[in-house]
Amino acid sequence: MVRFSLFALLTLIAAPLALLADDWPQWLGPQRDGVWREKGIAQKFPAGGPKVLWRTPIAEGYSGPAVADGKVYITDYTKAGGGTERVYCLDQKSGEVVWKHEYPCDYSGLQYAAGPRTTPVISGDKVYTLGAMGDLVCLNIKSGKPVWSKNFPKQFGIGTPKWGFSANPLVDGDRLICLAGGNGSVAVAYDKDSGKELWKKLSAFEPGYASPVIYTIHGKRQLILWHSEAVNGLDPVTGKVYWTQPFGSEPRGENKQVKAGMSIPTPRLLNGDQIYVTCFYNGSLMFKLDGDTPKVLWQRKNPSVVPDPGPKVTEQLHCVMNTPAIRDGHIYGLCSYGELRCLDAVTGERKWSTLAVNDGEERRWGNAFIVQLGEGSDRYILFNELGELVTARLTPQKYEEISRTKILQPTNKMAGRLVVWSHPAYAGQCVFARNDREIVCVSLVQ
């Protein structure tokens, strides 16, 4: 009897931890690192495809879903009535709408005007969403009622970035940290419960689109924030700037105009004190932190200044939307024309490349989102722009595809073709993915 009670007690203690591990409450998952740690995930799909548990109609959007405590959160956009952004809470098991919050939003002047970009963030009893035009909204997760809200252009007197506000907000302790923009307000921290501004820092011609992340480097927690001109390390509590490493859009052409601030992929950490960033115009940069002094280890970029470098010109890894994966001294990411490339993290040299992840064809802005299947594993799951899930082994020697299945139709016409450009969520042994018509839940149980 004692033995049974002890077992029951341990089971009850472990259950909440398992539930937490199964959630995907923010951009790139529970630890914001693009690793799916659940067990029992199928790596080879059945001939007829995995089981679709539900489909729920939604409208346009690039935003990915978030999953927490039995609910799925997603945002979309409808042009009806002059334009409206909406936040949905869905039941995780059935896909039924629990509540919906909406507000008017005019997308005039926005390029790629097909909905919100950022993944909702869940923390405690609140969910936070950031719309394409800078509407930051805090909602009660049970009722969907607003707790507080901000509008970046109104608050800071700034314009909307060319491709909208796209950097995923970050919850750290009692702070909600965002990229806003403007003079002295590129990075802003709010009290996550009241919406009170706690600090603001940094200036740049554009805030960029890269999501902030926190790493502990040399025993010090640092907010890594990459805007259109530089990578920065800040104290997440006070906003104090520890260091700055220039890396952004360079003046190009006869009139030396600055190109769009295409800082998009999330900065990655390796070996405890090295930071890697990659972008379309400037290629790849690896630097090391010696205390609060960044030292460039290598940089690989275009060999010539051209307005639109093609795949033969891009030298190493010039990612556009996807955040690369790093494992065992190698970097894996999709370059700007759809090639999956492997780099040696020590030298930056390219080891191999392949167009196999999508349809084998060169695709301008070709994309797939990469998630590691288990910490330390060489197995990955890629969601490509054709609406397909692909499982593969990524090693320094080669790309080895394991299985492939289609779960969504591409519906968003960009770059002259139909695409799906939304990062899925992985939770409860399922994948949650969306296009411009529906969000789908597909079982990936082994």
Give keywords.
446 residues; mainly beta; 2 helices; disordered N terminus
Please explain how this structure is put together:
The longest helix is centred in the first third of the chain and has 21 residues, at 2-22. A hairpin with a 5-residue loop joins strand 26 (330-334) and strand 27 (340-344). The chain contains two helices and 37 strands. It has helices spanning 2-22, 152-156, and strands at residues 35-36, 52-57, 66-68, 71-78, 84-91, 97-104, 121-123, 126-130, 135-140, 146-151, 170-172, 175-179, 187-191, 197-201, 213-217, 220-226, 230-234, 241-246, 251-252, 257-258, 268-270, 274-279, 283-290, 293-300, 325-327, 330-334, 340-344, 350-354, 368-373, 379-384, 388-394, 399-406, 412-414, 417-419, 425-427, 430-434, 438-443.
